## 1
Amino acid sequence: MHTTGYTVERLMREDGLEGAIRGQRRRTTIPEPSAPRPPDLVNRHFAAHRPNPLCGSPT
């Protein structure tokens, strides 16, 4: 069966259907700005000891 895109769009809109959205990320979790942040139980420090350090030895 051959139909035009507009016909399919109109029929889907009448039935309340939506097509798949591709290529866009949906944000599922939105953090509450006033919520307290969990404590850093590991005491991580993300500061570099010197500028531009290399990870591992160059080979």
Note: The mean pLDDT is 81.
## 2
Amino acid sequence: MATIKVKQVRSAIGRTKTQKRTLEALGLKKLHQVVEHEATPSILGMIAAVSHLLEVQIIFKIILK
């Protein structure tokens, strides 16, 4: 599964309560803070809801046997 790095690049000031709570649920509290999450449908939905405030980077893990 892919890992996603999420960075908050725009302020939550003046945003709705739901958008602020979504940022908190993603673990983002400050500008330019970076967190990593697994690419689950719930995380992807939260990222889509506040995508205008975020910078997203997808990291694919390749496992060779």
Note: Residues 17-25 form the longest helix (9 residues).
## 3
Amino acid sequence: MVHPSGPPTTTTTIPSPVEPTGQPVVLVLDYPGHRPEEKLTGLRLEAAGFDVRYVLTRPLPRDLSADAYARRALQAAGELPHGVHAVLAYCMSASLAQHVAVLTSASHLLLLDAERSTPAVIAKELLSVLRSFTPGAELPAWWSEEAVSHRPEEVMERVEGYLHSVIAAALAEDDSGDDLPGAQPDPAVLQVARTMAGTYLDWLAHLVAAHRGALPAFAGRSAHLVSADHRLPGSWDGIATLDHHRVACARESLAVDEETRRITLELLGAQPHFSSPYGGNSYAESA
């Protein structure tokens, strides 16, 4: 799970082809924030002959239900005239990926270290953000798990304003840590605070959307790849049979472990094809 200590932005630009290529299309949902865990780009699916589309790109959706968020994210996928071969997702994006898989009638759904977003998780993430600016901070009195589930627009509007004020106050402090008495807010500081708050709001909206909405039934082949210490969910709504594959590696390296890649390519129906400059074998989709 991402626990941002700073705005979870990324300086890496991932090419996302939007024109049909004739290769089997794989849609990837992997939140573009800083985290200790490796990104799903580490699977190197492009080198295996897949047309990989990373659909969580900035500007990120702010929709607050899973279905609406998934539909908005799909706009980054471009044209899909030949359908979708597979949808892959990491961590909290798993629920959203299930919606994407159903919306696109994908053949495969692969989840890596999947986790469910809950009101408690959302509260924990918000508190982590607040404490990164104000040590010892607590959740605002108006926050409630019931409200974030049933009145998310109202809650997120308040979160946006609250985050902006907290961040602006932290940025405006002088070197001694005290607010300057009578000082007027610096417009530049306010703008920086607004940008930072917006970045955190993107992440929180992602979690809220992943939490809200019943998981649709997915009829294709599905699998869950997990790192050595990942806790498996007892079941996953909407999927009758979810094959589990545990990889003997740390969570941080799951996406770059060669066993993860081998299992992924096998599940996607790929077979060794030719010597690859990326190391090991390259793969082609099996007939």
Note: Residues 187-211 form the longest helix (25 residues).
## 4
Amino acid sequence: MTLVSDEGVRCRPRMVRASIEEPDSFESHAASIAAIDFDGGATDGRGGYELEVCRPGSSEVLAILRWG
């Protein structure tokens, strides 16, 4: 997954344990990454960020999840 800020800043891709069938399973990962990479960004995962979800080893985006 790749987290993208509301300003278009992209974090490095990360592999996380979550399921596309349960999109909310990505939310805690988004909050943690935002807090680390965006200088204490949204702590609840709903700060206007989006996640690009890909399969491991692929750059094909399966889904884009948005919060905020």
Note: The CA atoms of residues 7 and 14 lie 19 Å apart.
